[in-house]
Design brief:
7-stranded mixed β-sheet, EC 3.11.1.2, alpha/beta, 16 helices, 2 domains, Phosphonoacetate hydrolase, Gyrase A, domain 2, Alkaline_phosphatase_core_sf, Alkaline Phosphatase, subunit A
Length: about 425
Amino acid sequence: MNAPSSVTVNKRSYAFPKDPVVVVCIDGSEPDYMEQAMAAGRMPWLASALPGGADLRADCVVPSFTNPNNLSIVTGQPPAVHGICGNFFYDPAKDAEVMMNDPAYLQAPTIFAAFQQAGARIAVVTAKDKLRRLLGHGLALKAGEAVSFSAEKADEVSLAENGIEGVLEMVGRPVPSVYSADLSEFVFAAGVKLMASMRPDLTYLSTTDYIQHKHAPGTEGANDFYAMMDGYFARLDAAGAVIVLTADHGMNAKHKSDGSPNVLYLQSALDEFLGAGKARTILPITDPYVVHHGALGSYATVYLPKDADRAAVAGFVEGLEGVERVLSREEAAEAYELPAERIGDLVIVTEKTRAVGTSPEKHDLTGLEVPLRSHGGVSEQRVPLVVNRPVSGVEGRKLRNFDAFDIALNHAEASRSAAAE
């Protein structure tokens, strides 16, 4: 099959790759993590690659959570287009609060599905299984042509479900704990092996933010993690790949000086203002892996009873300590490019050092081994956009993390060997 010169998906056109492209979503990676690790001499490959590459910055999607941003990166569009506006949401059609990891909620095709149809080989490896079905949606999974699997369920892969088998043998590592740095390392080890055996045209590697929730930039735990990644980036670079490093969101401390969580319990406050159970507070950070953050982020949506005075409630919430911004459904949909039908009557964003919860009894914080670090608000919107090749044609442009594939395919310089073909 002759490859086309370009592929158009979701109203954006991408050049067909001449070199393998690897986009890495480093979960929870604010730019300071890389800067501190390089300053400590822990990322020698990145330090050597940047002078000949591009060290850019971008804004992620708000809410700054995993699912909305990963799906934005792989569709090239904001949640208003692809429909995934949280890890968790209230589904009015079902009158139920549900995880947003079912492909039925996805309203746009991925870049991967479009490129596979054009003849490209695709590899998608995620840390957590919650993302796998969304990211791999629309792919015809077949050995050597398209694979999609998670490190978390690496022992359960099959040709029918994942387009690959024998992943543990291929990687040479056991199934890692979901609460460990090993989960992310498995993703990179698999990516390197796939590059050697399958040489995908497009590879997407998505990690977990377990380390970032526990370790601030520049700490030993953080630097160890970034040093590990740097070694794998060097191997992918040596294989001739165009590498783009970005993140789904940043991370900030959300605790008081004594180390206790700094939380606004919004449902409790609304119960006092409106009456118990009148309003419904939804925390879109919620997912099956809450041990390291207790389902506490900096973004919430609120559903109000039909007879509620929305402006009065918004004014009450705006007056609560730690609230940065209160938006109506319509305002939030416009400001943050969200699907209006999938968010509440009000959207609440808290300040950089404040998390928002429902009520104290609904949050199990016994798993917090260190002071709370989390994300979700505008304060965690700035993320890296690093490329191992020179980049042109983006000067003066406001970049988003979901421009990663556009940068890699349309603006990064091809290798000399590829350009000569």
